[in-house]
Design brief:
The chain has helices at 3-21, 25-30, 41-51, 54-71, 81-93, 105-124, 153-165, 170-179. It is built from eight helices and no strands. The N and C termini lie far apart (81 Å). The protein has 180 residues and is mostly helical. The chain has three domains: 1-32, no CATH class; 41-137, Orthogonal Bundle (DNA polymerase, domain 1); 150-175. InterPro entries: CB, DNA_brk_join_enz, Integrase_recombinase_N.
Length: 180
């Protein structure tokens, strides 16, 4: 079947379907769905904050505040994956530097997780499709290997020796270390 023939067949099928549903083409056009208003980040973060658990809010609130500062008045459908990466880099650079800092990777990871939570709710609310979710196309930074390690036997012997030979109650200190 050529293009015109398949187009005619498709139109005939649509007319038949509308007729079976009792809907005229004029009525279909007259009652076109009004476009859904897309909320801004300020509005949507406010709504999602009320819907998530206390623990989730505690973890993500500071990152949602950063999103509000950067994009508060923008519709949630506007940012691209590139802009999310740029915001993650900005958050990474502005992190609070602590003694055990690992270069801001956790800050960037938490920002991306906070945005993924926000966009999961947007998908569930029908504001965007799962395919249009920009946060899914932004990979989280890889976690660095842990710098934690167990004490060596020599270190443990040294700690025990100091505990049982010094302090106000060496017997109790030694006992506590053995139980721990």
């Amino acid at each position: 079947m050529d293009k015109d023939g398949s187009e005619i067949a498709a139109l005939d099928a649509a007319r038949l379907l509308l007729a079976r549903m009792g809907i005229s083409p004029d009525r279909l056009i007259a009652t076109a769905a009004s476009p859904q208003l897309i909320p801004t980040f300020d509005d949507y973060i406010e709504r999602v904050s009320k819907a998530v658990s206390h623990g989730t809010l505690r973890v993500y609130a500071s990152y949602w505040n950063k999103v509000r500062e950067a994009w508060g008045t923008r519709p949630i459908t506007e940012p691209t994956p590139l802009e999310i990466r740029q915001l993650a880099e900005t958050v990474k650079e502005q992190r609070t530097i602590r003694r055990n800092s690992r270069g801001g990777r956790s800050a960037a990871e938490h920002l991306i997780s906070a945005l993924r939570c926000l966009y999961r709710h947007a998908v569930a609310d029908g504001l965007i499709s799962d395919h249009d979710n920009p946060s899914k196309r932004v990979p989280k930074p890889r976690r660095q290997t842990s710098i934690r390690h167990a004490l060596s036997d020599a270190q443990l012997r040294s700690i025990n020796e100091v505990a049982v030979t010094t302090g106000n109650d060496p017997d109790l200190d030694g006992l506590l270390l053995r139980f721990h």
